[in-house]
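Service request form, structural biology core

Requester: graduate student, group of Dr. S.
Request type: structure prediction, single chain
Budget code: on file
Notes: please return the result as structure tokens.

Sequence provided:
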Amino acid sequence: MSRLNLDDFSDLIERPDSGMRREAEERRERLIVPPGSLGRLDELGEWLSAAQASVPVKPIEQPRVVLFAGDHGVAGLGVSGREPGTAHELVRATLEGASPVAVLARRMGVPVRIVDAGLDCEPGLLPDEVVRHRVRRGSGRIDIEDALTAEETEQAVRLGMEIADEEADSGTDLLVLGDLSVGGTTVAGTLIAALCGTDASVVTGRGGAGIDDLAWMRKCAVIRDSLRRARPVLGDQLDLLAAVGGADMAAMTGFLLQSAVRRVPVILDGVVSAACALVAQRAAFRAPDWWLAGQLSGEPAQAKALDRMALIPLLDHGVSVGEGTGALLALPFVQASAALAAELPERTDSPTDSPTDSPTD
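Core staff response, request fulfilled:
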């Protein structure tokens, strides 16, 4: 098997169909409600038309939540509100329907898929369909050692690509991406600080589990030390993921890139998915055209990454729990945009007639 080169994705990923988007915009001008009156819903409907290459837009009928799970060695330094090596508990809660994302997914009728890329637990604690893809048991402590070997990094990226292909082949028409990790926001903050050229203090947040001031200072110091290891390998995305990423992060990066190749839109959740998206953008500048920022979590690193990718969040409700929860909350908004764009009737009068005839006045 030839060595993976993420730069190859630049040639594989195309933009959504611009001609179809213009056609969708023209159709929007003819609908019974005035242009602009639906706000962001109008823009989303046109974006979906371009992504689907379809006017009118097709309804979102087979969405799926995909969560990549992993533990990170830096969690042992007291940078997380959770104990190190306990991400499998988040997985178990989701499988049992007792986590926020599981409750919402059940209510919305959206299936959830969990992929163990790097959990630090005995495989027997979880179902085989979750653990069978595991790249390694936990990722290295990135402030003093590499997260992964070069071989593990490539294996993790290919894992993400494989999952994206499986979802595309099964007919999934919208993906909701999240993570189940402990220590993940510290790793995400390091990746974002490195790629945005900023200091640790600018990207250090409180994490999904919440931390006190002392833990925040420890987290800031870990990101600072990890940045020293990240900067020499900024020129190669695989080397960067190996040095200061993790198995789940590398898998999510591959997943995002291959989803764009397969023309399947993805809703990003919080800071972890934003960090992986930023790495993927460095490999393929057109890839973000296939992603939506589901929500603003309150993590400063996430805001930094989304700004760099010019992605405007759909929601801003301060949902910091992670696990794909905020992205899943944005799904009904996206589905509503598709329904309105497809089902609202066109005017029967001339576009030059008085707008006072509109039923919305």
